[in-house]
Every structure is written in C-alpha cells, then in structure tokens.
C-alpha cells in the first residue's frame, strides 16, 4: 500500500531499467506461492495476492474475478495438507455447513457493492484495506 501511494518500486524500476510495465511471470510465481503458503498457514493469503494484483492495474471486474478463481483453487489445494495434518474433522466440517447458507448472502453483497463502487474508489479502498491488514499482521508478529 505504501508502495502504491509513494510509487517507490516504479521509481527504482525506472532508474534501473528505464522501462515500465506490469510485473512479470517471476513476480507472479513468487507472490502466488507466497499467497498460497500464507493462506495455508494462517489464512492470510490476501496481502501477498493483493500486492501482485494491484500492481497489474487491471479493471476492478478482472481483479475481483481473478481473486475468486485464485482463492477457490488455493482453498481446494490446501485441503490436502489439512487432511494429512488431521484438520479435517467432523467439528470443522459441521461449522462449515453451519455457515454455508451465508455464502449466497456474501456473494449477493459483493456483486451489489461491485456494481456501485467506482473503480477509483475501489482501488483506494483496496489499498487502504491492504495497508490496515498488513499493519495488523506486522503488529501481531512483533508483539507477544
């Protein structure tokens, strides 16, 4: 978020390469792997994902759609390690079923908000939430 507001990496990239462009395949691989890893360990895959995707500067519909597909895949893939760690049990599955009826409400609310929030405001909110989330994660890591 700070990078987006102060354009630090753009300045460094311009200085080093004299060219500009969206992040490449190496960045996608690194941030995607980091997002999957942190999602599996602490359900905190959003910030690494947002760091990469916000740098792509795509329209909000592509951003939201890509997020949905990416985390659908990540969440299904992490079922494998959860199974081997014994985390998939009847208690967890019952809790998931209990909250499943709320999924359509969340989808409806997301679509409703998506249609009403202008793209500029969408990205301001996204960067603000990324900053708050990242600050909270850093705070949690630094305090006992």
How many strands in all? 0
Rounded to an integer in angstroms, the radius of gyration calculated over CA atoms is: 18 Å
Shape: globular
Mean residue pLDDT: 86
Give unreliable regions as ranges: none
Q: What is the count of DSSP helices, taking H or I runs of 4+ residues?
A: 9
Q: SSE string, helix = H, strand = E? A: HHHHHHHHH
* Largest beta-sheet characterization: none
Fraction of helical residues: over 70%
Structural class: mainly alpha
Percent range for β-strand residues: under 5%
Span between termini:
25 Å
Structural account:
There is one protein chain. With 144 residues, this protein is mainly α. The protein is 81% helix and 0% strand. The chain has helices at 2-6, 8-17, 25-42, 46-56, 60-77, 79-84, 90-99, 102-116, 119-142. Helix 3 (25-42) packs antiparallel against helix 4 (46-56) and helix 4 (46-56) packs antiparallel against helix 9. The longest helix is centred in the C-terminal third of the chain and has 24 residues, at 119-142. The chain is globular and about 50 Å long. It starts with a helix and ends with a helix. The model has no long low-confidence stretch (mean pLDDT 86).
């Amino acid at each position: 978020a700070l990078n987006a507001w102060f354009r630090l990496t753009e300045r460094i990239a311009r200085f080093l390469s004299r060219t500009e462009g969206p992040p490449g395949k190496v960045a996608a691989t690194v941030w995607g792997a980091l997002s999957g890893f942190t999602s599996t360990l602490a359900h905190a895959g959003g910030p690494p994902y947002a760091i990469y995707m916000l740098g792509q500067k795509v329209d909000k519909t592509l951003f939201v759609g890509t997020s949905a597909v990416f985390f659908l895949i990540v969440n299904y893939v992490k079922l494998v390690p959860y199974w081997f760690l014994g985390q998939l049990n009847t208690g967890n599955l019952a809790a998931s079923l209990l909250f499943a009826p709320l999924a359509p409400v969340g989808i409806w609310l997301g679509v409703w908000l998506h249609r009403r929030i202008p793209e500029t405001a969408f990205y301001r909110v996204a960067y603000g939430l990324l900053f708050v989330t990242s600050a909270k994660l850093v705070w949690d890591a630094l305090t006992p």
